[in-house]
Write a structure and sequence with these properties.
The protein has 162 residues and is an alpha+beta fold. The protein has two domains: 1-36; 38-158, Immunoglobulin-like. The chain has three helices and nine strands; from the N terminus they run αββββαβββαββ. The strands form two sheets. Strands 3, 4, 6, 8 and 9 form a five-stranded antiparallel β-sheet that branches. A four-stranded antiparallel β-sheet has the order 1-2-7-5, with helices on one face. A hairpin with a 2-residue loop joins strand 3 and strand 4. The N and C termini lie far apart (77 Å).
Length: 162
């Protein structure tokens, strides 16, 4: 082996090492970009006497959420997706009709979104006990969603309280 062969082999090793580092760096940057726009959907119950009360959906993440699908269940009976038809079926069973906001598959939930999905405008524990019981003890809402990149399969679930 002469000096030219050794120099050429070193150049090839350095080039391959540079390629590996560049590929790793690209992968890490893509992962960082995905995490920096990750949506985080949360479902909360809130009961404030005299104020709006019910189920609230909040996107507290850094990116918009794309709804993949949803499932509404009442008393272990699957009603359907969280759409107007299914929610109206549930509201029709109640003596007091709460307000509702629904969404469809593929709908985008914006950053800082905060909206009551099922609620009463001026909560009174005595007049709205049926709605409170439905939301706290009988209703399950599952929402599957993704970021704009897609394919993550995130889920948020509101389960009955024990």
């Amino acid at each position: 082996m002469n000096a030219d062969t050794i120099t050429a082999m070193c150049a090839v090793v350095i080039a391959v090492a540079s390629l590996v580092v560049a590929l790793y760096q690209t992968h890490a940057m893509r992962q960082h970009n995905r995490h920096s726009v990750r949506p985080i959907l949360q479902l909360h119950r809130s009961w404030h006497a005299g104020g709006r009360a019910g189920i609230r959906l909040i996107n507290s993440g850094l990116g918009p959420a794309v709804i993949v699908d949803s499932t509404l269940t009442v008393d272990d009976e699957v009603i359907g997706a969280w759409n107007k038809l299914s929610v109206d079926r549930v509201r029709d069973r109640l003596s007091v009709r709460p307000s509702a906001v629904t969404f469809s598959q593929g709908e985008v939930i914006a950053i800082d979104y905060e909206q009551y999905l099922l609620s009463v405008a001026s909560y009174d524990p005595q007049n709205h006990d049926e709605v409170e019981d439905l939301i706290n003890r009988r209703l399950t809402l599952k929402i599957r969603y993704e970021s704009l990149y897609g394919g993550e399969g995130y889920t948020t679930v509101l389960r009955p309280m024990q």
